[in-house]
User: Fold 4-diphosphocytidyl-2-C-methyl-D-erythritol kinase from Algimonas arctica.
Amino acid sequence: MLCRAKVNLTLHVGAPIVSGRWSGYHPVESLVVFANFGDDIVFAPDSESSLTICGPFGAGLTAGPDNLITKALRACDAPPQSVRLTKRLPVSSGLGGGSTNAAAVLRVFDPGQRVDDVSLGADIPVCRLSKTSLMEGIGEVVSAVPHLGSMSAVLVNPGVPVNTGDIFRAYDSTHPPVVPHKTARQGSLLERALSGTNDLEAPAIAAAPVIGAVLTILRAQPECNLARMSGSGGTCFGLFSSDDAATRAADVLSQRGWWAVATRLGEPS
Assistant:
């Protein structure tokens, strides 16, 4: 089963919530799309549960009880499974890799949606749907946005770790608005993406300047319509006018020693 990479085309973040169930969390508003590239997960019934992790980025993960796949299996009260995860997405990269893995578990073993998705992580609800969506609240409010098609894109990760907590704390020091800004509700997928920003991009660049270098090079590539960071970093994306242009750009970025892959974001028309 393909665990499609999550990309935040826009990410608007409000000030931390001060009371109630979500105290300490940040309200968000984000136009989210999914790639036709990601991790791969296979389930097989077994006498005992086990998790094997392989793939280009498998060494960055442990298969212990804190792994999101294991947590999701427990939350679903799933029968014992032998699980094999091929990790093709960089770890802690802003692409929702762990969340997409857990969401795959929920789609298979919790079809009735008994599990409180957000209890496993704020990105889990949108990753369970795994379609072009508007994400609001702290992530628990997800609205599918159909019929927007797909776009040629490049995903680039420079391999520099970015600490999500540090990025949010730096953002909070800028006195963010109580209510997040809004992405346009009309227009094409590209027009909606262009209408917004990623509010965490500036503090992420301050923490890891190489992110700014990635964005500068992406923007300089022919037919690049938009370059932006996804999530809290450090993966960036470029939206291109054609698959060929995206492939050429991925080649240029990979020559710098960065992880880069050409893909399509969104849903087939």
Remarks:
- The longest strand covers residues 28-45.
